[in-house]
Amino acid sequence: MATRRLAPPEVQPKSFDWSADSAVKVAFWMGKYPEARKQSAVIPLLWLAQKQEGWVSEPALRKIALDLAMAYIRVYEVATFYTMFHLAPVGKHHLQVCGTTPCMLRGSGDLIEVCQKRIGNHHHVTPDGLFSWEEMECMGACANA
Ligand code: FES
């Protein structure tokens, strides 16, 4: 089963803040919702943080919680639920392999072995920064398995 956890503390940056470019986009997304519903911008803001840094760090989650006046745990829940958010640094080419039963029955275990052999353990980035991989739950592509 795929595990969704934040990167370990030694990998986390000390702080996070929006770049000037991202701050403009944050203001745009927050402006789309009434003040009392600004938490609805959580997914766009998580996406912007990932676009800016390449992944979503723990300080980024805290910054988003602060900006949206949300409890940190609520932002954490969203970030850890959606596999489109990288919770640790990833390679330029990040592979996601489905490890759910239909795909396992059709050989995704073999793909996982190849990834482990060629790239390393899941969430490991190759020294050249090109590749990383992770196991995921069903991607809704079961028919292709
Ligand atoms: S079980 Fe693998 S994509 Fe659905």
Quick recap:
This protein has helices at 20-31, 42-53, 58-67, 72-81, 101-105, 108-118; strands spanning 93-98, 131-136. It has 145 residues and is mainly alpha-helical.
CATH topology of the largest domain: Arc Repressor Mutant, subunit A
Q: How much of the sequence is in beta strands?
A: 5-15%
Q: How many β-strand stretches?
A: 2
Relative helix content:
40-55%
Structural class estimated from helices and strands: mainly alpha
Cofactors, ions, other ligands: FE2/S2 (inorganic) cluster
> Main sheet?
2 strands, parallel
**How many structural units, i.e. domains?**
2
- Estimated radius of gyration: 17 Å
Strand ordering within the main sheet: 1-2
Oligomer classification: single chain
CATH architecture of the largest domain: Orthogonal Bundle
Average pLDDT reading: 94
Distance between the termini: 17 Å
Q: Uncertain spans, ≥5 residues at pLDDT below 50?
A: none
The level-1 CATH class of the largest domain? Mainly Alpha
| SSE arrangement, N to C | HHHHEHHE
Number of helices: 6
| Bulk shape | globular
Could you explain the architecture of this structure?
This protein is mainly α and 145 residues long. The chain folds into 2 domains: 62 residues, Arc Repressor Mutant, subunit A (Orthogonal Bundle), CATH 1.10.10; 52 residues, Glutaredoxin (3-Layer(aba) Sandwich), CATH 3.40.30.10. Helix 3 packs across helix 4. It is globular and about 50 Å long. It starts with 19 loop residues before the first helix and ends in a 9-residue tail after the last strand. The mean pLDDT is 94. It binds FE2/S2 (inorganic) cluster. The site of FE2/S2 (inorganic) cluster has 10 residues, from helix 5. FE2/S2 (inorganic) cluster binds next to helix 5.
